[in-house]
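Trying the structure run again after the queue cleared.
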Amino acid sequence: MANGRIIEVNGIKVHYHDEGVGPALVLLHGSGPGANGWSNFVRNIAPLAKTFRVICPDLPGFGKSDMKPASSPIPGWWGDIIVGLLDKLSIEKAHFVGNSMGGMIALKIALEMPQRVDRLILMGPGGGFPVSSVFPTEGIKTLANFYDGPGPSLERLRGFINQFVFDPSQITEELIQQRLEAALDPRIVAQPPMRPGPAGMPEELWRDARLAKLPHETLIIWGREDRVLPLDTGFVLMKQIPRARFLVMPQCGHWVQWEHADEFNRTVQGFLTP
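Done. Tokens:
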């Protein structure tokens, strides 16, 4: 894993990568065991940094960043940290790409502080609601229960990651070992970041009436075979956000940016530089 930088935001140390020159582009990762910014976007950072200043943090509770307080609300607390990071870096406005939980955080920032967001790419984001699919999915159950029962293991992690993709052969042993090492961090084992705390369950953003007034050009991307957050989870968001486009990737699971990296990178470049 490439080395990044560490900066303190609201008393929390945040580890992040800062690559390239140009308009600011923030990449926000998802919440699976062992997740961090680099492992989620390793196939995207360098190509996108040819055009943008790419900011890719480890969200607190993941990677090399400090822990997320158990009492902090999801996703609002993370949104405040990311905006604080931009303040520290003297970035007034940025494009956002959010995967899964990262998409939910990006959407929350757009709702609360729309002036800080330029264009918005939501990739299989949380915060929606399935129209017809059974929910929670097996992928969500595995994510939520990863640290319960027998606890984390290589076998459980491999099974979980295989649910993220259409073609598990794309998952490298290097990636699995990196994520296992991160997932076994004693801090995270003791306090899994997605375990509901005193603040309750993650906010249901699809219920927020402000979605209908979001001014941002928005691209929603979904893998057709997503087994974590099924495709129809995005329909409610697509219907509510006025300037939303919806792109479906065939033969693709929850990790569009990994399974279809080249097409994803081209799509992001095209949408953000029309």
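The chain has a mean pLDDT of 92. Worth checking whether this holds up in the mutant runs.
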